[in-house]
Every structure is written in structure tokens, then in C-alpha cells.
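Notes from the pairing session

We agreed to fold both candidates in a single pass and log them together. This is the raw record for the first candidate, unedited. Please don't reformat it; downstream parsing expects exactly this layout.

Candidate A
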Amino acid sequence: MKEPIVIHTDEDYERAQLRVKELGRPAEGSAEEKEQQALAEAMLSWELRHDEAEDRD
């Protein structure tokens, strides 16, 4: 994984969820674990932005 993971749409979020499920429980320190952590951070960031947008409405 060379680029940061950024979620812009609901579809991106759904794909991220599917990828997390695909990765399962990777070995500690593996590339898959790092990808899973990046996905989790991107998903949390998207959720926070999404919630803030709803609060403004």
C-alpha cells in the first residue's frame, strides 16, 4: 500500500468495509495489518465528516 486511503462516497465506504472483511485477522506487523489500520482510520474520518454534515443540516 503506497497511497493513503481516502473515502469520499458511500460506495467507497462500502468497499472499505468489504476489504476489511477480506483481510480478516492479519498477522501483526504485516502489510495486510497496515492496510487494515489505514482502512479503519479512513472509515473513521469519513464517519466523522458524515456526522458533522448531518449535524449542520
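Candidate B (folded immediately after A)
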Amino acid sequence: MNEKEFIAGYIEQLKQSMHYFPVDFITETDTELLKMPQCNLLLAPPLFDTYELVDEKGNTYFHTDNLYRAKYIIYANSKKPNTIVIPKNLEEIENAVKQYEVYLDNLLREIEKDYKKEFPELKNHISVANKIFNSLNLIRL
């Protein structure tokens, strides 16, 4: 097996067992729909404790004073939907984001472990993990 085959196999494996954000990470039913711009969003550096979500051209779409709400919107936007479901309770948003980040960190550790097992002499696991995440539209802030 080469790296390319490892990446393709890992992507297929994850497609079968992957948890999706936010649906697999929220439990609250008191939610609202948030209209999305259907483009990639980036988290701009905070300015006066305000977080802006912008596109690649710098157009601002959302402002929030809560980092977890900003991360929630970016994570939920990975497939560029028309709308996302977002809990009204900030604690639920924070819990969902923290659980999702733990899940992503565990995925990264598993990829690294499996890569090192398959290719003990190579040190390219970070690049491989990035390719897998990019292919699945996963992002870790």
C-alpha cells in the first residue's frame, strides 16, 4: 500500500462511520434556523471581543461576541448548506463545539497511529491527515 491508497481507503472508511456536525452533537430541541451564504467562511481575528465570519474575499456575514457560536457556524457550514440549525442556548452550542473538537482530535490521532503503523519509516502523517480532512470538508479551528 502506498500513501495515496492509504488516504483513499481512510476516506472511504470515514464516510461509513463519520459523525456529522451539528446533527450528531446537539441534543437541544429549542433551536433556530440560520440562513447561510453558501460559501466557505473563515474566522477573522477577534476585534474588541467580537468575532467576524467572512468569506475568502473579506465580505462579512456574521458578527458574534461568542467564540463557540462562531466556531459552531463555521463547523456547521462545512457542506455549504442554505440554512443551519443552531441551539438558542449558548451552553448547548459550547458543549456541541467542544464534543466535536474532541471527536476531530481523536480522528487525527487515529489517522496518525494508523499511518505510523502502515509506514513506520515515514513522517508525513500531518500532510496525510490534512488531505483526508480536506477531502471530507472537515476543519479544526
